[in-house]
Design a protein that fits this description.
heterodimer; A: mainly alpha; 21 helices; about 75% helix; globular; B: alpha+beta; 8-stranded mixed sheet; about 30% helix
Chain lengths: ~425, ~425
């Protein structure tokens, strides 16, 4: 079965490959892409509905129930949260207005627009093409598409209670609902992360192109390839642990695919970093040009003020060693932020992994793998803290990245339910 | 065993669902989706309101028919308003080339250069508002921002209703003369007479004019009204003041010819007023400004901005310090306060003026921040003055950036941050 959501997302990212072309050529390509995206969205949705109607009517029922919940959130539209305005929606408006990403960034005015790759912006571009109410509505439609594609691709053999419990667990989380209300990149990031980490537990491991495609999507949603490496690695580990026996061929295949996905993530991150440099120069050049144009009128006399200061490098504290008390504090801080925000989900992940180990023995080890992801994020905070001394100033960023925890808990519960039901039947 | 495991699994799931459901919180009122659904069923489809008012600037630019490039001064970023955040606002501006920056009123012009010891020049702070051609006009706290200003080419704002008393004339034979018509001189404005009240739908700060069939004098002389004779009778014009904060007005003061010009015949004093304002904004010689002001005062002695004009007409002249001090000695006059940085007065004279005296010792509000930051800029050379240091600290203390994000070399729209940094 094709992962329709991933196909849609990969099509949505195509304009990133046009960066740097600029002018009428990019504008023509961008316009063609906008309609291609609409066609892909409608085609992917129709394909998912057809597959569910034909093979999994229970999945279709759950999807329809989910559509009601999503419609409720879509109609609640009450704005766009902070980052979304600056990083995603602004980029989308600029790209549409100036016919492509390159010209859009040139007119970006503030360099904040370069803070994230435009994956999130592009994913909801069809909301403008179809005149939907807001990008939030488009995001919710994509959540529905992801859910449908997840049913078709991974939950086909899960019974109705299993399907229901997956969504019941995530939809009672206040922070998940916050993400459904507002337009944010964390939601898609977490869904793709979850698919990588959970697919082996459902007996439907990702195909090589899906793993590499997911790596690309992750990095073009959030530019740090090191973070994208976490679900790639935990997915590979889950694949190995879920296999009844370890053959050389299995080890080779998993190793090659994982390495390829990491290379894709690394290259995609470098591509974006290079683009940021070039686009930043374009943006600054254009701004200077506009200011010069405005200044050409009278040469106003101005009050000029000089201020002598010291460089911040001299005022900044030293960078702590990786193995130091400061690093330990950073990890402890990340642990408290994560576990305090999602206490029940962390407890459930641990309890379910233990239950899996007790009941499934060797196969139950695979249920430990998804849980590792959030903990690696906590440990990684020590590395982040070395370069950003004020890392504690924005704990919401960590909290939102850890939105993966409820989805992983729901996925592990569903997969374990399926495994136990299968054993009972057999 | 498997059955027991399934029971345990469902118990764990139930515990999570019940536990999370108990603390479940939506970001919106539960009834909002139904309300929105009802709205959306109407034709034409209304705009869905949202609490961020995020598109207000974009919609307003379209309404005012303003094209770029516009370089707009914003209130201080940390003045507790979404209108002070360039990133937030620019996220929804899709109308022309619009650049937004936090800075004081962009006239007179100001440039600031930070020289950072031991660092490359491109990471130091540089400020230059010589290209700024507009200032956002918005409410922050209980006041309208900008609190201080000189003058403008045009002021445009989101449609505001304003009522004026309908004037009547007393003819030379003592009879009462009623107006026969009223007109707005700018295409963005509309006006209608409703008996004793004339209601204006205003988007542009410019006069309205009543037409009378006969000449006469005003029944009651009112501030802002002036009579002039015309070929077939008389006309009375009225100049409104800037909108007040209680109506939540929102607009822009333009320092360049960006708005559409007036279309219908204007009163005699209006072109003089326009020429005067443009002479100030474009820094024309002081003699020219004085002559225009004299002519305007003759044509329209009750002009609502005349006292303000008398101070700004002297900007850059040797009389400016005295005129400014005379005005500020009587009471704290906010519109001209920030011009203290363009005087050559001493700190000992300024620190006793009502604006500083009334600051008190409690936490500064927007008004206090504006007053204090102006004197920090004006007397920046007095690095060891304890009162100035205290004022600067109180200004910076208002900012959440003082506690969070300290690592950024962010541009201070009030100068105090940079000045304090220079002392460390």
């Amino acid at each position: 079965m094709i992962d329709a959501f991933l196909v849609f997302f990969l099509v949505s990212l195509i304009p990133i490959a046009f960066l740097g072309i600029g002018g009428p050529t990019e504008a023509a390509l961008f316009t063609a892409w906008r309609w291609l995206q609409v066609v892909t969205f409608l085609g992917a949705s129709a394909w998912v509905l057809y597959q569910l109607a034909r093979r999994d009517w229970r999945g279709l029922v759950v999807l329809l129930l989910l559509a009601l919940v999503v419609a409720y959130f879509g109609l609640s539209y009450s704005g766009i949260a902070w980052d979304a305005q600056i990083e995603y929606h602004r980029v989308l408006l600029l790209a549409i207005r100036y016919g492509g990403l390159t010209e859009g960034y040139r007119h970006g005015v503030v360099s904040w627009v370069l803070g994230y790759p435009p994956g999130t912006s592009l994913s909801v571009a069809f909301y403008r093409s179809l005149h939907l109410l807001s990008p939030n509505v488009a995001q919710e439609l994509l959540f529905l598409l992801w859910s449908g594609a997840f049913f078709v691709r991974h939950l086909r053999h899960v019974d109705l209670p299993g399907k229901l419990l997956f969504f019941a667990i995530i939809l009672v989380d206040t922070r998940f609902l916050w993400h459904l209300t507002y337009f944010y990149n964390n939601l898609f990031y977490a869904l793709i992360w979850a698919e990588l980490a959970l697919a082996p537990l459902f007996g439907s491991p990702m195909r090589p192109w899906e793993t590499c495609g997911s790596a690309l999507v992750l990095v073009w949603l959030r530019p740090q390839w090191e973070i994208a490496a976490i679900p790639i690695a935990t997915g590979a580990l889950a694949t190995l642990l879920a296999s009844p026996t370890w053959t050389k061929r299995l080890l080779r295949d998993v190793g090659v695919v994982t390495a390829a996905a990491l290379v894709v993530a690394r290259l995609a991150a470098s591509y974006w970093q290079n683009a940021v440099g070039e686009l930043g120069r374009l943006l600054n050049g254009h701004t200077v040009q506009v200011l010069d144009q405005l200044r050409t009128h009278p040469d106003f006399p101005a009050l000029h003020v000089d201020v002598d200061t010291k460089a911040f490098m001299q005022q900044a504290p030293h960078t702590p060693a990786l193995l130091s008390k400061e690093s330990a504090n950073a990890v402890a801080w990340a642990y408290h932020v994560s576990v305090d925000r999602y206490p029940l989900y962390f407890a459930a992940l641990a309890a379910l992994a233990l239950l899996a180990l007790v009941t499934l023995r060797r196969r139950g080890l695979a249920f430990l793998a998804p849980m590792l992801g959030p903990f690696i994020v906590m440990i990684g905070t020590a590395v982040f803290a070395r370069s950003v001394a004020s890392y504690q100033a924005n704990e919401w960023a960590l909290e939102r990245l850890q939105i993966i925890v409820p989805i992983l808990a729901a996925g592990v519960a569903t997969a374990l339910h399926q495994a136990l039901r299968e054993r009972r039947v057999s | 065993m498997r059955r027991a495991a399934l029971v345990v699994l469902w118990c764990i799931v139930a515990a999570v669902i019940v536990g999370e459901a108990r603390t479940l919180k939506l970001e919106f009122a539960a009834s909002l989706p139904w309300t929105n659904l009802k709205r959306l069923r109407k034709r034409p489809r209304p705009k869905i309101a949202n609490h961020y008012r995020e598109q207000i600037l974009d919609d307003s630019l379209a309404e005012w028919k303003l094209d770029g490039p516009l370089y707009v001064a914003l209130p201080p970023m940390y003045s507790d308003t979404e209108m002070g955040n360039a990133g937030f606002l620019s996220a929804f501006v899709n109308n022309g080339d619009v650049l937004l920056y936090n800075e004081p009123y962009p006239q007179p012009r100001l440039t600031i250069d930070e020289h950072m010891e031991g660092a490359p020049p491109d990471i130091a702070y540089h400020f230059d508002n010589r290209a700024t051609n507009a200032a956002l006009f918005t409410r922050i706290g209980g006041s309208m921002w900008p609190l201080g200003y000189t003058t403008w080419y045009d002021v445009v704002f989101a449609m505001t209703y304003a009522d004026a008393t309908t004037p009547r004339l007393i003819a030379s034979d003592g009879t009462l003369v009623e107006p026969t018509a009223v007109r707005a001189i700018h295409p963005l404005n509309k006006v209608d007479i409703f008996g004793d009240v004339t209601r204006m739908e205003m988007r542009h700060l410019s006069p309205i004019v009543w037409t009378f069939p006969r000449e006469g004098r005003l029944q009651r002389p009112l501030p802002g009204y002036v009579v002039e004779s015309v070929a077939d009778g008389a006309e009375v014009s009225y100049m409104p003041t800037l909108p007040l904060p209680h109506g939540h007005p929102f607009g822009m003061m333009l320092l360049a010819p960006r708005a559409a010009p007036t279309t219908t015949p204007a009163p005699r004093w209006w072109p003089v007023d326009e020429r005067f304002r443009r002479a100030v904004v474009d820094a024309h010689p002081v003699e020219e400004r004085r002559a225009l002001l004299k002519e305007l005062a003759h044509e329209f002695p009750m002009h609502p901005f005349l006292d303000h004009y008398r101070v700004i007409a002297e900007l850059g002249s040797d009389r400016f310090d005295a005129v400014w001090l005379d005005q500020q000695r009587e009471q704290c006059v906010l519109p001209t306060w920030y011009l203290v940085a363009w005087t050559k007065l001493g700190w000992s004279e300024v620190r006793t003026l009502p604006c500083i005296r009334d600051l008190g010792s409690s936490r500064l509000d927007e008004r206090g921040e504006y007053i204090a930051s102006a004197v920090v800029l004006a007397f920046r050379a007095l690095r060891d003055d304890p009162l100035l240091e205290k004022l600067a600290e109180r200004v910076v203390d208002r900012s959440y950036l003082n506690r969070d994000f300290r690592g950024f070399n962010y541009p201070p729209s009030n100068f105090a941050w940079l000045w304090l940094k220079a002392r460390r």
